[in-house]
């Protein structure tokens, strides 16, 4: 049983690591769509067309499910992908609900790319779950892209987070939603800058749990067979930009998860 995981760069590896932790018997194919990055500055139409194209790649790979490990792609393009691909497709939504429940002071910030920050879906989530909480939305055009260039970009990443944190602290934020899968990769930087008074919420474990639920519903017998085999799954890394960034991607994969192979995928 094989599951495809996609993102514009390294961010979805935060989701992949949680899936591998919870479902170690799955084979995982990770596609970093670096030739089309960053997703945050693309139009809705561009992202919808691209996601369908990537879905066809995963169909050729024979995956049993696809995880769209990107908030931006999820909020604007996942419905179009579901219309085109008839297998379980799991997305990533900003964790507004748990943040509003966890915030003691009812002061919540959502940090996202510009597309997610301005999306109707994020607005709906905030309206549904904020109740008496004050929820502010912040965005960064550069942070996800700079995280892809880590560790060379460490100083830029830190400077951006410090700037964003200044606004959060001025608003007395005590719960932060990381609404881009790139951001949890540098969660330690957020924790260092914001201190212990701010709860940081990211979606990776929730996505892994939802993937398991869908596989149990849609493919119970193949799933059970794979579990009973006792064989640990493999991780394959793919990029649409060549192999130059594969070492950067592999550096974010949890050390105990062996990468079995990597390859360049040419997608027009």
Automatic annotation (TrEMBL):
Catalyses which reaction(s): L-glutamate = D-glutamate
Keyword Isomerase: yes
Alphabetical list of InterPro entries matching this protein: Asp/Glu/hydantoin_racemase, Asp/Glu_race, Asp/Glu_racemase_AS_1, Asp/Glu_racemase_AS_2, Glu_race
Pathway the protein contributes to: Cell wall biogenesis; peptidoglycan biosynthesis
Keyword Metal-binding attributed: no
Active site per database record: 70, 180
Top-level EC class as recorded in UniProt: isomerase
Origin superkingdom: Bacteria
Keywords assigned by UniProt, alphabetized: Cell shape, Cell wall biogenesis/degradation, Isomerase, Peptidoglycan synthesis
E.C. code: 5.1.1.3
Coiled-coil regions listed: none
Positions that bind substrate: 7-8, 39-40, 71-72, 181-182
Function in brief: Provides the (R)-glutamate required for cell wall biosynthesis.
Family under the similarity heading: Belongs to the aspartate/glutamate racemases family.
Protein name (Swiss-Prot/TrEMBL): Glutamate racemase
Organism of derivation: Marinomonas sargassi
The encoding gene: murI
């Amino acid at each position: 049983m094989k599951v495809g995981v996609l993102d514009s760069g390294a961010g979805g590896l935060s989701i992949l690591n949680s899936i591998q932790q919870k479902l170690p018997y799955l084979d995982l194919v990770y596609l970093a769509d670096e030739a089309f990055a960053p997703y945050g500055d693309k139009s809705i139409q561009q992202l919808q067309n691209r996601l369908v194209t990537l879905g066809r790649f995963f169909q050729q790979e024979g995956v049993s499910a696809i995880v769209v490990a990107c908030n931006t792609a999820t909020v604007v393009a996942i419905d179009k992908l579901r219309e085109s691909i008839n297998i379980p497709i799991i997305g990533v939504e900003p964790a507004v609900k748990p943040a509003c429940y966890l915030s003691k002071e009812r002061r919540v910030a959502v940090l996202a790319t510009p597309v997610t920050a301005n999306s109707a879906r994020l607005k709906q989530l905030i309206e549904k779950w904020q109740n008496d909480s004050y929820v502010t939305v912040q965005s960064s055009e550069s942070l996800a892209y700079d995280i892809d260039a880590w560790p060379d970009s460490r100083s830029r990443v830190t400077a951006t987070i410090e700037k964003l944190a200044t606004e959060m602290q001025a608003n007395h934020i005590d719960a932060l939603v990381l609404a881009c899968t790139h951001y949890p990769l540098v969660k330690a930087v957020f924790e260092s800058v914001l201190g212990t008074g701010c709860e940081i919420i990211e979606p990776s474990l929730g996505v892994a749990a939802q993937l398991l639920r869908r596989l149990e519903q849609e493919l119970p017998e193949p799933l059970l067979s794979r579990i009973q085999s006792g064989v640990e799954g493999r991780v394959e890394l793919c990029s649409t930009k060549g192999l130059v960034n594969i070492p950067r991607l592999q550096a974010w994969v949890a050390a105990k998860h062996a990468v079995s192979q990597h390859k360049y995928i040419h997608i027009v």
